[in-house]
Fold this protein.
Amino acid sequence: MMRSARRRSRRIRRWEVGMKVRRLQRLVPGGRELEPEQLFLQVAKYILQLRVQVNVLQALSKLYKP
């Protein structure tokens, strides 16, 4: 592979990763103000919070089943 093709490939991958990070920043509350390192930590916390919410809603739905 030629050097310029490798450079182009790296540039494309960097761009793709950047796009994915920006998409993630839009999904996570407060994510737009975070750098990628802090964003990933916030994502982990957000996932745990969502799991807790799901568990609570599942428990409540079991209580109110007819």
User: Anything to note?
Assistant: Residues 3-63 form one domain. Residues 51 and 57 are 10 Å apart (CA to CA). Residues 36-63 form the longest helix (28 residues). The helical segments are 3-27, 36-63.
